[in-house]
């Protein structure tokens, strides 16, 4: 069973350990979760796909769990989504209704509300492990985001692999304040807790103070993106407040070495770092019982195989120095991009290898270090994956823009920050707001530079590396 701790028979027999989920001021026991989510399942059963506006609330938790009980694929929609991106996600996914919260603009879809106090004790058969659990939209280098088909089998396998690597058990209390529309917060944080059976605390905003409070409340397994950890270290007191936790885990982007060292100094815990993607789920991690090496993301999880392909197409040696393109094989791989067999074929080979787009080195002991991305057009900002192309397309539709180039500039807080170089006569503030309104708030450029011309080569191709040299 995917959400093993919500087994109705066990819950009815009293395996209810009190507060299973704490989120947005609401506390749900396992019995509350099973009863209310099964009531959601009754209202949603039979739908082909539903969209969930994934704000960190109890309604979102019940919507996702209810749809999973009924075997209906969920499209988590970013809480801060703008008009154009919402339109794209709804049309591309074919979502038939909004389940849970209704956004300001429902785009004409029917609404299935979630009632926190409704209860049903109907027993649903467990859907096939091959069934799609989630369709998660994620950015490529160009074009609008693609819907990644994530199966129930992949989710279950990933959580089990991570439980072994992190010694994660029902005795833990997992803490995070991340979005519930991406793998990190939703699959690992929420669904992981509901599979393993540990308590789950969502902190709301992932501020250093909220993390410190959640650990004081018993948090033992703490998840964050590097920006969250970096702010905790900068705060000092909050970093010291991590001491009673069992394991601090960082992922979604590279954890800077000074942040690793700061956490170790203040809290006494060297963080575990792990690596993955929406398409592959988490495939590499350092171990609760093993070496944690600053700047390195660890070993393949049980069942994962990796290979490094050098520029000449041969296998790169595992000498800790030779750089190659990272490919992974894993029971956790996605089932393709929805409606995009072309894009799927570009990254997934017939024999089951996923081409990650990341460049890495591997040492003789099998430890992996991520060196960077193959393309400058895939940006990671605050742990969010953002395509330069999608932002350029939107900005080009603005009447005040005639040419644009978007880059990810190095940023001490966000890892990379989005900077748009624009030829045109619009104000930077207006363009930033335009992207926030059309795509999503977290994709807005943090900086717009109005320039006379963009650097191009003789063929007219943009020279982004030249733009990046300005930083
Ligand atoms: C600013 N704000 C605006 C605007 N500008 N609101 C509307 N329109 C605008 N133009 C508001 C925001 O809504 C927010 O308000 C406040 O300003 C702060 O926004 P911002 O500066 O963007 O947020 P931040 O505090 O800098 O965010 C940092 C963060 C965030 C919390 C670390 O980047 C984050 O949550 N990152 C996690 C991403 C993640 O989970 N990635 C996992 C992908 P208010 O605060 O009032 O709402 S999965 C993955 O990568 C793989 C599988 C893996 O390995 O995990
Ligand atoms: P996403 O699809 O949003 O999950 O983003 C996946 C990408 O995030 C990967 O392909 C990497 O580029 C990056 N990433 C995730 N975890 C790490 C990590 N620990 N270190 C460096 N990059 C990471």
Net shape: globular
* Count of individual helical segments: 14
* Number of E-type strands: 24
Helicity, as a percent range: 25-40%
N-to-C CA distance: 50 Å
CATH architecture of the domain at 1-13 and 28-127: 3-Layer(aba) Sandwich
Account of the protein in words:
With 471 residues, this protein is of the alpha/beta class. Among the domains are: 1-13 and 28-127, Rossmann fold; 378-468, ANL, C-terminal domain (GMP Synthetase, Chain A, domain 3, 2-Layer Sandwich). The chain has 14 helices and 24 strands. It has a 9-stranded mixed β-sheet, with helices on both faces. The chain has a 4-stranded antiparallel β-sheet with strand order 16-17-18-19, with no helix packed on it. A 3-stranded mixed β-sheet has the order 22-23-24. Strand 22 (401-411) and strand 23 form a beta hairpin. It is globular, with a radius of gyration of 22 Å. The model has no long low-confidence stretch (mean pLDDT 97). Methylmalonyl-coenzyme A binds at residues 80, 178-179, 182-185, 205-206, 225, 227-228, 251-252, 276-278, 382-384, 433, 436, 441-442, 444.
What's the gist of this structure?
By secondary structure, the chain is an alpha/beta fold. It has helices at residues 8-12, 30-44, 58-70, 83-93, 152-166, 183-196, 208-216, 226-235, 237-240, 257-267, 341-347, 388-396, 428-438, 464-468, and strands at 19-23, 26-29, 50-53, 74-77, 98-99, 111-112, 132-138, 146-151, 173-176, 199-202, 221-224, 247-250, 272-277, 281-285, 299-300, 305-309, 324-329, 354-362, 368-373, 378-381, 384-387, 401-411, 415-424, 447-450. Among the domains are: 1-13 and 28-127, Rossmann fold (3-Layer(aba) Sandwich); 378-468, 2-Layer Sandwich (GMP Synthetase, Chain A, domain 3).
């Amino acid at each position: 069973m995917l959400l093993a701790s919500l087994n109705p028979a066990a819950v009815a027999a009293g395996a209810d350990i009190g507060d299973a989920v704490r989120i947005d001021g609401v506390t749900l026991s396992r019995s509350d979760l099973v009863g209310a989510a099964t009531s959601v399942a009754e209202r949603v059963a039979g739908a082909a796909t539903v969209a969930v506006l994934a704000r960190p609330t109890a309604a979102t938790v019940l919507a996702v769990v209810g749809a999973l009980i009924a075997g209906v694929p969920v499209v988590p929609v970013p809480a801060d989504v703008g008009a154009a991106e919402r339109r794209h996600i709804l049309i591309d996914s074919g979502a038939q209704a909004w389940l849970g919260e209704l956004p300001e603009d429902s785009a004409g879809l029917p609404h299935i509300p979630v009632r926190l106090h409704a209860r049903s004790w109907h027993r649903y058969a467990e859907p096939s492990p091959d069934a799609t659990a989630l369709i998660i939209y994620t950015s490529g280098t160009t074009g609008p985001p693609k819907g990644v088909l994530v199966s129930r089998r992949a989710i279950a396998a990933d959580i089990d692999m991570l439980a072994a690597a992190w010694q994660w058990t029902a005795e833990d209390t997992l803490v995070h304040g991340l979005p519930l529309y991406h793998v990190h917060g939703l699959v690992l944080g929420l669904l992981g807790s509901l599979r393993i059976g540990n308590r789950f605390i969502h902190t709301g905003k992932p501020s250093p103070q909220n993390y410190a409070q959640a650990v004081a409340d018993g948090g033992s397994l703490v998840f964050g993106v590097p920006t969250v950890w970096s702010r905790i270290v900068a705060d000092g007191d909050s970093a010291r407040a991590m001491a009673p936790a069992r394991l601090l885990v960082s992922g979604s982007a590279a954890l800077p070495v000074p942040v690793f060292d700061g956490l170790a100094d203040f809290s006494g815990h060297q963080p575990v770092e792990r690596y993955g993607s929406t398409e592959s789920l988490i495939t590499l991690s350092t171990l609760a019982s093993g070496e944690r090496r600053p700047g390195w993301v660890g070993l393949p999880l049980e069942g994962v195989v990796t290979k490094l392909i050098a520029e000449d197409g041969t296998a790169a040696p595992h000498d800790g120095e030779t750089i190659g393109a990272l490919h992974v094989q894993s029971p956790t791989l996605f089932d393709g991009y929805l409606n995009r067999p072309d894009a799927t074929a570009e990254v997934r080979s017939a024999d089951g290898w996923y081409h990650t787009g990341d460049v890495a080195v591997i040492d003789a002991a099998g430890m992996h270090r991520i060196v960077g991305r193959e393309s400058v057009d895939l940006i990671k900002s605050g742990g969010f994956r953002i395509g330069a192309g999608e932002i350029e397309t939107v900005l080009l539709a603005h009447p005040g823009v005639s040419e644009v180039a978007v880059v990810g500039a190095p940023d001490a807080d966000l890892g990379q920050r989005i900077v748009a170089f624009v030829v045109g006569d619009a104000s930077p503030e207006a363009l930033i707001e335009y992207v926030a309104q059309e795509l999503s708030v977290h994709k807005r450029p943090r900086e717009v530079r109005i320039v006379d011309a963009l650097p191009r080569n003789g063929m007219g191709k943009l020279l982004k590396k030249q733009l990046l040299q300005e930083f």
